[in-house]
Write a structure and sequence with these properties.
single chain, 280 residues, alpha/beta, 5-stranded mixed β-sheet, 15 helices
């Protein structure tokens, strides 16, 4: 194992692009350990693209350790330089996360969803489908690389069906919904995540989740509450027929939530809502 000192200024940590946000509290614990004992385990990095202005190295593993070094004001860390490409490095990060016991349901689902995409780029021969399905299935049967669900299930100690269920759960969520849920208690509530995923309208799903988080309630609880009457189609059509076509199909509780969000954003006023309700 070839370990060398690398300047932090030469490493792109890509904290924002990581599967799990770096926990500042845990990084502080690592920093305290560094201050007392020094760095025990090197981080792992890979070479950058080599293009002008691009970082010399990119972090593969050790985000908490790198963050801890920044807290302490260190200018360098012990590091191992790997020869992994971008997809191989991402697969390494995902697998490291999947083996953690503290990973919430949403993060596990996202990790498996992205792992499948990366895995199929690395091993396209394991994919089923296409015009010559029978040939491809035969190829998979004799291939030394297992298909994605077999490999993921074996690494995590779960069934292939469970792997597929996690991926289906994540696919049903809008990107904005995922961003809103990350780091909340709802991110580890499987039943509630499944409920949210059943809301097919993009706007409806995102708005209901954000409103529920603001109210400190579950989206399923908020949707069941009795609400006051709201404007009918005439009011929504004033916003434009394309937008109205989606909104009119929403449940009344969700329409009310959306109205409140529009008022907060300054797009409509409460007087307009009242006039629209009286006119309908």
């Amino acid at each position: 194992m070839n370990v060398k000192k690398v300047k932090l200024a030469d490493i792109d940590p890509r904290f924002d692009a990581r599967i799990r946000p770096v926990d500042g509290g845990f990084a502080q614990i690592v920093a305290d350990s560094f201050a007392e004992r020094g760095q025990d385990t090197p981080i792992e990095i890979r070479y950058g693209s080599g293009e002008e202005g691009a970082p010399k190295y990119i972090l593969v593993a050790g985000a908490r350790r790198l963050f801890a070094a920044q807290i302490l004001g260190w200018d360098s860390l012990d590091a191992i330089i790997s020869k992994l490409n971008a997809d191989q490095a991402r697969l390494r990060e995902i697998d490291d996360n999947l083996l953690r016991d503290d990973l919430d349901v949403l993060s596990r689902a996202r990790s498996l969803y992205e792992r499948k995409e990366v895995y199929l780029r690395l091993y396209p021969q394991t994919a089923h489908g296409g015009d010559r399905v029978s040939e491809q299935v035969a190829t998979v049967a004799t291939c030394s690389v297992p298909r994605f669900t077999v490999d993921a299930a074996a690494r995590m100690g779960i069934s292939e069906r469970t792997v597929r269920d996690y991926i289906a759960l994540y696919r049903a969520l809008q990107p904005e919904t995922v961003r809103a849920l990350q780091g909340t208690t709802l991110a580890d509530d499987r039943a509630e995540l499944l409920y949210i995923g059943k809301i097919e309208h993009e706007i409806e799903q995102v708005v209901l989740v954000k409103k529920a988080l603001e109210a400190g309630k579950k989206p399923s609880e908020l949707a069941e509450e009795k609400v006051a009457p709201i404007p009918t189609e005439a009011m929504w059509l004033a916003m434009g027929r394309k937008a109205a076509a989606k909104i009119i199909k929403m449940d009344a509780p969700v329409q009310r939530v959306l109205l409140e969000e529009l008022v907060k954003a300054g797009l409509i006023s409460r007087d307009q809502i009242v006039r629209g309700a009286l006119a309908s």
